[in-house]
Automatic annotation (TrEMBL):
Its cofactor is [4Fe-4S] cluster. The lineage of its organism: Bacteria, Pseudomonadati, Bacteroidota, Bacteroidia, Bacteroidales. It comes from Bacteroides uniformis str. 3978 T3 ii. One of its GO terms (cellular component) is cytoplasm. InterPro entries: Aldolase_TIM, Coproporphyrinogen-III_oxidase, Elp3/MiaA/NifB-like_rSAM, rSAM, rSAM_sf. This is Radical SAM superfamily protein.
């Protein structure tokens, strides 16, 4: 089984507990996506023609990307590796990014699994962790995802 992990390092704010590389410099997104697509092409030989079964977008905050950003990345993956065997395609997301419009946009892409970073529903703890969402936003995001057909 082969999988691809794609690190999207962009965040609106930095959470105090996060040890992953991230940046709040959103002006670097397009340059990063171009470099990422180049890297996907140069790494093809590492998989020795194994079919890709999982694709995972982690971060950072991958839900900071726009539709056209995901389209460019998925187009590259499909051209280089193929996606016909990809059974699980996951996006890490922050609850406050999952507006009705954003969730609808996600349904137009190959994502079939969302990993939402809620951490807690406790307001003081969310504030301490420097999380952008509150409990109500997290619950609303869960409902939006369910209504859109995400079942995980």
């Amino acid at each position: 089984m082969a999988g691809i992990y794609i690190h999207i390092p962009f965040c609106k704010t930095r959470c105090i507990y996060c040890d992953f590389y991230s940046t709040t410099r959103s002006e670097l997104k397009q340059q990063y996506i171009r470099a990422l697509c180049t890297e996907l092409k140069t790494r093809k030989g590492y998989l020795k023609e194994e079919p890709i079964e999982t694709i995972y977008f982690g971060g950072g905050t991958p839900s900071q990307l726009a539709h056209e950003d995901f389209e460019q990345i998925f187009r590259t993956i499909k051209e280089v590796y193929g996606t016909e065997h990809a059974e699980e395609i996951t996006l890490e997301a922050n609850p406050d990014d999952l507006t009705e419009e954003y969730v609808s946009m996600l349904r137009t892409l190959p994502f079939n699994r969302i990993s939402m970073g809620i951490q807690t529903f406790d307001a003081p703890t969310l504030k301490l962790l420097n999380r952008r969402h509150n409990a109500a936003q997290a619950i609303a995001a869960i409902h939006r995802l369910r209504q859109a057909g995400f079942r995980n």
